[in-house]
Specification:
Strand content: under 5%
Structural class: mainly alpha
Number of domains: 1
């Protein structure tokens, strides 16, 4: 039994690492104009979300990424949590935190993430899914 638990834990860590890598590569490729790479990584992220929605991957993987040091990782995890309706209060708080970040010293890809967080948050508030 111990081996099975260990394999599941490693699987979860691998899935988290794949999300982190795809989010960061997507972010950097988008800001540099490498849309082929950005689109490839976006597809990987969409596929991962489908696997989370279908129960193949644990939803809490996204929760664990909300405080990641890279804003794109935490931002995408929050947006995905809103999409699947899991831990929405924490996801909203993460997006609010991101929208308040000081953009003056951010790289372009980080600024794009802040903009995406603002747009997503505004959209969800307007639709009545979350409160201000």
């Amino acid at each position: 039994m111990g081996t099975k638990i260990r394999k599941n834990m490693l699987g979860t860590e691998q899935i988290k690492q794949q999300f982190i890598n795809a989010a960061i590569i997507n972010s950097e490729a988008s800001s540099s104009g490498d849309y082929k790479t950005a689109n490839k990584q976006a597809k990987l992220l969409r596929d991962m979300l489908k696997n989370i929605e279908n129960g193949k991957y644990d939803k809490n993987i996204l929760v664990e990424l909300l405080n990641h040091k890279h804003v794109r990782v935490s931002g995408l995890a929050a947006i995905d949590l809103l999409r699947i309706g899991h831990e929405t209060n924490i996801a909203v708080e993460t997006l609010k935190r991101i929208t308040k970040m000081d953009e003056s010293k951010m790289a372009v890809d980080e600024k794009l993430t802040v903009m995406a967080a603002k747009i997503q948050l505004k959209s969800w508030i307007e639709k009545g899914y979350v409160s201000r």
